[in-house]
Every structure is written in C-alpha cells, then in structure tokens.
C-alpha cells in the first residue's frame, strides 16, 4: 500500500513545494525529495502512485531516470511524470518516449496540473469519516455596499459569516447588518458562549450591524474583536463607541498566521480593496475556509502586473470552502476598474486554479434584482460544470449553512 500518493523529485525547493501544494489542494498527499540519488530507495520504500521527475538536476537527468526506473515503477504500480521549464514542444515527446505518462510545464499552470493529476490519480479521495465534528459555516448577510431594499431570495443584509469551531468558540467574519440574526441564533444556543468578531475592514457595510449588538451587552458571553491596523480607524475606540458593557478585547491583525487554539489557525492576507482590507483563511479539524469578500482581481484577460491573483490563488490552495468577492457580472467588472471588486468569472478562475471544493459567490451588489442574480448564478454554474476539476459553485444566500 502506498505511504503517500505523489513523490516529487526536484532540486528546486520552491517548485517542488508549490507542486506539492497543488497535489494537496486536490486532497492527495505528496512528499518532496531534493536528492535524486535517493529516488530508488524511496520508491521501493513508499511505493507512491505517481513519481514526478524534474529533467535538470545536479548529477541527474530526469529523462534518463525515467527510462531506468520505468520497469521498477511498473512492478510497483507507479506512474511516472516528467516536469521541466524547457520547451514543451521538444521535451514532452522526449518524456513520452522515455516512458512518462504526463508532462508538467514550468512555471506550473494550476488548472493544467489539476487536470493531469486527476487523470492519473483518479477522483479526489473522499473526506475521512472520523469522529471529528463538522465545521459549520453559516451565511447571515452577503450583499455588497448597502442592504438591499425589500425582499430577496438571496437575502438583503450586508456581510456576516460565522464559523463554528470544535472548541465551542464561534468566529464571526465581519459585522454587516446580517450580524444581528447571527447574534440572535447564538444567544439561543448555550453551547456557544465565546465568539471572536474578525473584521476584514471598516467600511460601513462591514461594521454597521455592530452598534447595539446584543452580544456586547450580555455579561455571560465572551466577545473579542480583531481587525486590520488602519490609519483612519482605531479598533479599540470603535469597540468602545459601540456600547460594549465593560471592556472588550481587541487585537490588530497583520499579514501572518495566528494560533486561535490547538487545532485552529487563522491566516491573514491583505486584499486589493480601498483602505486596509484583509482576507482570512481558517484551518480547523482538517478543513480550510477562505473568506475574501472584497478584492479586485484582473478582469477578463487583463494583465496581472501586481500578481494579486497569484497571491490569492496560493492563499486559497486546497480550500474546502472559498467565499470570494463576486460583486459584478463580468461585463460590469470590466467597466468598473479600481472599484475594489471582482466578478464571478474572476472568482471562478481563482477557485479552479486553487483546487477549491466549493465556491460561494459573495458580496453581490445591492442594486441587482433576483432575476439578474439568478442569471449570474446560472452562468457561473455552467462555467463551473465545464471546469477542469469538480467544483460546487453557488451564489451566497442568507441562511445557508455549509457542513464541511
């Protein structure tokens, strides 16, 4: 039985580790080996399902290794692939003649690698069915800008999402108008008496629900705040102005990782949105949730000079649930530069390249009707069905709960 799925043999740690992340984003396991002289020993010991060999390594030629190792790999039931930054037109046929079943071109294109990995390894492995409690993510508000008027099948409230942790603590992501329904729900559930409110930024639509929040006045409920360091907003002063009963802990977040408690990690990244704005990655109970409600990604074929899409893709690798800014349909996105928002098309591209399992299209503009939103969602779902990897894609709806 294989100890892990993929053995990556490459003397370049950056390339090897990035490919390892792409393998992991599909739910498979991988190990990197930087010394090609050890590959035979490791191949016999671990018996991986796929061996990936770089062509150019010190003291070793990946194509010669491929040809020499093919008989042993066949006996062990291992497929061989070759990777290189050299010309695909020249090297891919040479790799196939040496016995390779696949060729990965550097720099890696995530969707291509995902497609080829799934072709070689088969469907994603199913989630393990241990006794660990599900991670429950609930949407309480998802509209962008201002609360929508009237009623809507998608909801009318501004952003608020909760993540229930196995520790009995709840993470509340943003404090838009949807947070009041979140608070009412929590106060009815005695198993939850602690929460952290994590603010991505301080625009009105993300903090307007905090004033008068029942959780602030309940002495039996422990509440902590965290948000970005912003030159125009003092988080501690903001919390005091909200009318909290007694002192409330507040913490300024930087672009780094934070241990929330054993088994739960919060990672923070700056997003491309006016004022200091954050994106969050929450890893707990073997699951990963990424929340990025406000960011401007390249529209259409626009050149990504700042590499912001690359950074977000790497931040989102392997997400079980990706909640991502989809404020516009693509045609409006291209006509609205520097507004700090994206389209479902840009969000879908990130989700596919990151190997996400679910994509929640978030922050739809308040001015769009249900008919417009239904059309937007239908287009996104159709595109997701044609993607290189299995992807569950839907527009955010208030009251939706994801059990991961």
CATH superfamily of the largest domain: Ribonuclease Z/Hydroxyacylglutathione hydrolase-like
Strand elements, count: 23
* Poorly predicted tracts of residues: 128-132
CATH topology of the largest domain: Metallo-beta-lactamase, Chain A
The residue-averaged pLDDT reads 89
Q: How large is the count of helical segments?
A: 13
Sheet of most strands: 7 strands, mixed
What is the CATH-assigned architecture of the largest domain? Answer: 4-Layer Sandwich
- Strands in their spatial order, largest beta sheet: 14-13-12-11-10-8-23
Strand content: 25-35%
> What is the name of the CATH class of the largest domain?
Alpha Beta
Q: Write down the Rg.
A: 23 Å
How many structural units, i.e. domains? 2
For the record, give the distance between the C-alpha atoms at the N and C termini, rounded to a whole number: 28 Å
Structural class call reads: alpha/beta
Helicity range: 25-40%
Global geometry = elongated
In terms of topology, how is this protein built?
Elements: E1 6-9, H1 13-25, E2 30-33, H2 39-46, E3 50-54, E4 56-57, E5 60-61, H3 62-76, E6 79-84, H4 88-97, E7 102-105, H5 110-121, E8 136-141, E9 143-144, E10 160-164, E11 169-173, H6 179-187, E12 194-198, H7 204-207, H8 214-217, E13 222-228, H9 235-241, E14 249-253, E15 257-261, E16 264-270, E17 278-284, E18 287-292, H10 308-316, E19 321-325, H11 330-334, H12 344-354, E20 358-362, E21 364-365, H13 370-385, E22 392-395, E23 401-403
Parallel strand pairs: 1-2, 1-3, 3-6, 6-7, 9-21, 11-12, 12-13, 13-14, 18-19, 19-20, 20-22
Antiparallel strand pairs: 4-5, 8-10, 8-23, 10-11, 15-16, 16-17, 17-18
